[in-house]
Specification:
- This protein is mainly beta.
- It has a ten-stranded antiparallel barrel with strand order 2-3-4-6-7-8-9-10-11-12.
- The longest helix has 13 residues.
- The protein is globular, with a radius of gyration of 22 Å.
Amino acid sequence: ATPQLVPPNPMDQLQSAMSGRKDDAVALSLHPTNLLEISSGVWLGDLIIRDYPSILMIPNESSRGFGATPAAEASTEPSNFGDWSIGVQKIAWRWMWNFGDEIRQITDVGKAMGSSYIAALSKPLAGTVSINEGLSRRMKIDDRMVHVTWSGDNVGFIVGSTAVQIPRYFAFDARSAAQKPIYTDFSVFQSGDIDSSGEPMLDENGDPLPNLPTVVCSKNTRVYNYEGRLKQGCSSFYTFKRFGIDDDEI
């Protein structure tokens, strides 16, 4: 008798695939960071955009140019994401600090597939840094909150393993919404185990450099239009590339 072929069980395939990746997974934990570390390299990652094409940033604005593509506008097929329009972009995020009270934030985005990041959010930001010294005798310097006053009426905080950027106040103004969108950022920094295998990195004097953990960042961004309605929800995921150490991988 000819043996019958039994189709594989999808759940067994999924379990097998997951168990096969288990050994390669990197265990992540919260990574307390500081301004010196954040600005000592470049953050490279991917940006996932969820855009509401039907919600306009400013009155009488065409949805084209704020996330919708001609192909997406012409399509009449229903989306699996409901009213959301989805897009993906490469992104590079840099903090440039002069070790004093001046700081800049630079965001570079690549070509989008689908909806795109709102262009005004990738404009450079300049700011002023201040560190909370009120509890300097009780807290280590790495545990103190860093406060940044950004241009464009935004403020930011770095404390522990989190960074937050929010508007100083909410002013829903149709005239300025396109130039200065109202948005919020929430970032979480994590790190993996230190890899001590392989040959150590050497500095210019031939001395071995300390082994450093792999640091990653997850960021959620919410963008609101002139009426205070949610226009975009973005999730971005970054890997930290340190200057002078990870340059070959950038």
